[in-house]
Design goal:
By secondary structure, this protein is α/β, with parallel strands linked by helices. Helix content is about 35%, strand content about 25%. It is globular and about 60 Å long. InterPro entries: FAD-dep_OxRdtase, FAD/NAD-bd_sf.
Amino acid sequence: MNAMRHPYAGTGDHTGSYYAASANAAPLRPELQGAHDTDIAVLGAGFSGLSTALHLAEKGHRVTLIEGARIGWGASGRNGGQIVNGLNASLQTIARRYGQDTARFVAGLVMEGGDIIRERVATYGIQCDLKPGNLFAALTDAHMREIEARWKLWRGYGIDSQEMLTAGQMRDHVATDRYAGGMIDHRGGHMHPLNLALGEAAAFESLGGTIFEMSPVTWVETEGPRPGLRTARGEIRAKTLVLCGNAYLGDVVPTLERRIMPVSTQIMATEPLGDLAARLMPSDICVEDVRYILDYYRMSADGRLLFGGGTVYGGADPRDIKAKLWKNMIKVFPQLAETRIDYAWSGNFALSFSRVPQMGRIGANTYFAHGYSGHGVTGTHTFGRILSEAISGDTGRFDVFAGLPWIPFPGGRTFRVPYSVMGSWWYGLRDRLGI
């Protein structure tokens, strides 16, 4: 298959985010030039590609990683940095759609991604400000009933790391009167996502892996015994090809492009808050509420509030990110009404219509994984391990996900954005009405 337009990668260095400004030092990797041959080529150096490549390198495979821009340039280096266990689709939804056996299978791996991150940080000494715990916040009594139902459901699958909190207990974590209560997940957490990505890239290279940056792909061959890809100045062939471009793959692989839709979310970072940071968030935990269009936030290592939220279907950037997020931040923390905003940025994640990540194979020797639908920090790390298992000959877990039917967006590529906007408006109205 052949496509020549790549609208995302290859545009230069990292976006003007707080993460980019505070990133650990990292080398500039070379551009792919000339003809190359490898055992396994992985396209995309976000968390999916990095996790897959690192797992494969640990198993002794010869792996080459190709990135259109810089390591972690896309969602992996721009996200909220929150380790949130679970998929976007609930275990109840998965059981209803795919059966109880599939729900039990998914329940058995939803905590795995966070464990992989903690293992990586410990094993390779990655400096990414990793901290424990995340909090789900309820704004209404209806939200509390929703959270409690989830707590009971997960305990029924043997997941017992979560604890219900009253409104008073919530204030031990967040200095606001906005919440009716919530739930803490002690196996969640947060970290500097770009520094995690950079650390995983360094770990991969320490095991003999090769990385090419600033090499946007213009052509991909997925069929035949030796799939490959081509850039403006180079080409690589491999025994196995893995596609991990997610929301930033563009239309280079049309078969995958129509399965997902890029959706942007926005984040801003305040000036350092000094002693106020600990007063606002005494337990230094990360928070997200449970609305359809949610707020999520946490403190950075240097005491800035990183506050995110909002969505734009189709992946466009809002004209004024600060204005879009400011009013929601002040509802949570009116104490910050006079606070300066130092950084504001946007990034895309890949949404699948079912809200379940997709994994599969194109032809005999090309694998892919994408569509984490806003839960990519943990999901990518789990799926990278599963892809490495399949490529190494153990297809058990891969086959379960590959066998799940994917659902196209109603209206196809042309109408998927307006359809999703209408759905978002409806669920946003329900949030505003508290139902």
